[in-house]
Amino acid sequence: MTIQPDARDVSPADGGPAQMRGTNQSGMRAYNEKLILTLLRRNGALAKSDLTRLTGLSAQTTSVIMRSLEKDALVVRGEPVRGRIGQPSVPFSLNPEGAYFLGLKIGRRSAEVVLIDFLGKPLQHRQLIYPYPVPDAILRFANESIVAILSGLTESKRKLVAGLGVGMPFEIWNWADIIGARQDEMDAWRQTDIRAELGTNYPFPVYVENDATSACGAELVFAERQANSEFLYFYLGTFIGGGVVLNGSLFVGRTGNAGALGSILVTDQNGKPRQLIELASLHTLDKLVTEAGGESAPIWLSPADWGDLGTALDDWLEASAPPLAQAIVSASAVIEFELAVIDGWMPVEVRARLVEEVRSAMTKLDAEGIRLPVVEEGIVGAEARVIGAASLPLFDKFMVDQNTLTRGIRDADRA
Questions:
Q1: Where are the beta strands (DSSP E) in 171-272?
Q2: Would you state the torsion angle of the CA atoms of residues 70, 71, 72, 75, taken in this order, to the nearest 10 degrees?
Q3: What's the burial of 229, exposed, middle or buried (CB within 10 Å: 0-12/13-18/19+)?
Q4: Please, what are the domains in the chain?
Q5: What is the distance between the alpha carbons of residues 303 and 288, in angstroms, rounded to a whole number?
C-alpha cells in the first residue's frame, strides 16, 4: 500500500521537512495510531485538539483512535487543564506500562540483556563479560537471562512484551586478530542465524540491527531531540561506530551499513591516513594502558568508573579528538548536520572531556564553505546499544518512521 496524497503535507509553510500527517481514509487506522503514539513520544502530553491539529485528522477520527489507545492501555489521561474558554483540556501521555521490550547487545567484550518499559526506562539488566564473543556462550546467556526476566513478570505483563531486539556488529568474525580471538571460534558466527536461534524460543518477534546503529536509534527515540533534525552519531565501544539521522529518522542505507563512521579516512598525529576506527576506539585505549604497565580491565568492567588510567587516558584523548573532528567536518561537507553527538562506553566525565577536545580540534581545521554542526554529548549514555536494541520492536510496532512519508507505507494492517 502506498501512502495517499492527502496523508502528508508536501508544502510546509516554513519550507522545512514535510510534517507528519494522518489520513482519514479507512484502512489506515493502524498507521494513524502509530502516528499519534509517535507525536506523544516526541512532544510529551497532548490534548486531542493538539493531536487533531498536528495530524490533520478529523476530530472524530482522533477521538476514535484515542479511545482505542486508552482501551489498550497505551495512553493515559492526565488531569484536566482548566482556566480556558470552553471545556477543560485533557492531556494524554504514553503509559509506561503499555508495552515492554527486550534488548540484547552483543559486543566484542561483553553482552547485555535489558528489559525496558514503553518510555524506555530500563527495568532489568544483565551482563556477561568475556575476552571475545562465542555464539554458543552468547545464546546460552541470552536465553537464560530472558527466561529469568520473563519469569519475574506477572502473566499480564509477560503478554505485553512486544519483541526482542538484537544489536550486534556486522561481520563480527572479521575482528579475530584485533581482539585476540581464535579465528575458528569467531568463524562460527558465519553459520549462526541469531534471529532464527532466538526466534524459535519465544512468542514475540526478534529484530537484528547493527549495534552502533541501534545506539543511534536510542538517541533519536529517547533523547527528546527535535523530530526533524539531522545529526551524526558516534558511539565509542571496543571499536567506534555510528549512525545517521536524516529528517528526524534513522537512515540505514541500502544494505543497512549507512553510518559506518569508523571507516572514515582521517589522519593520525603523524599525518598518516588511517581509518577512524584505529584511532578513536576503546581498543586503542586498552592498548595504551597495557603498554604503560597499567590495568585495562576497568575499561570493560564498568562504564561508570574506570579508576585511574594514568597518562594513557590523556594520551588517548589527545590522539582521538583530532580524527573525530576531521570525521565530523568531512561528513558535514556532504550533509548539513545540525548536531554531532558523541557517546560511548565510558564515564560521563571522560565523555565530557572528549567532547571538549573535539570542539577544540574542530576550530583548528579548515572548514571554509562548510556549516559545522554543534558537538554535543549523548543523552542515553553507555547503555545506548542495548537500549537501542530494545527499541527496535518499539520502532516497528509503535512508531512512524518519518521516511515512510516519502517512501510509502509497508503493507499497513487494515483496521
A1: 206-210, 231-236, 240-246, 249-251, 265-267
A2: 10
A3: middle
A4: 5-95 (1.10.10.10), 100-214+386-396 (3.30.420.40), 225-378 (3.30.420.40)
A5: 18
d(C-alpha 331, C-alpha 319), whole Å: 20
Q: Would you call 219 exposed, middle or buried from its count of C-beta atoms within 10 A (0-12, 13-18, 19+)?
A: buried
**pTM for this predicted structure:** 0.84
Instruction: Encode burial over 283-313: b for 16+ CB neighbours within 10 A, e otherwise.
Output: bbbbebbeeeebebebbbeebeebeebeebb
Rounded Cα–Cα distance for residues 265 and 259 (Å): 13
Tens digit of pLDDT at every position of the chain (415 positions)? 222 223 222 222 333 334 555 554 444 678 899 999 999 998 899 999 999 999 999 999 999 999 999 999 999 999 887 766 656 689 999 999 999 999 999 998 899 999 999 999 999 999 999 888 999 999 999 999 999 999 999 999 999 999 999 999 888 888 777 777 888 888 889 999 999 999 999 999 999 999 999 999 999 988 866 555 899 999 999 999 999 999 888 888 888 888 899 999 999 999 999 999 999 999 999 999 999 999 999 999 889 999 999 999 999 999 999 999 999 999 999 999 999 999 999 999 999 999 999 999 999 999 999 999 999 999 999 999 999 999 999 999 999 865 543 333 233 232 3
The closest alpha carbon to 354, from 214, 242, 235, belongs to: 235
Task: Please give the single-letter amino acid code of residue 41.
Answer: R
Q: What is the 3-state composition of the chain as percent helix, strand, coil, each rounded to the nearest 5?
A: 40, 20, 40
Q: Are strands 110-116 and 374-377 parallel, antiparallel or unpaired?
A: unpaired
Cα torsion angle, 157, 158, 162, 163, sign? positive
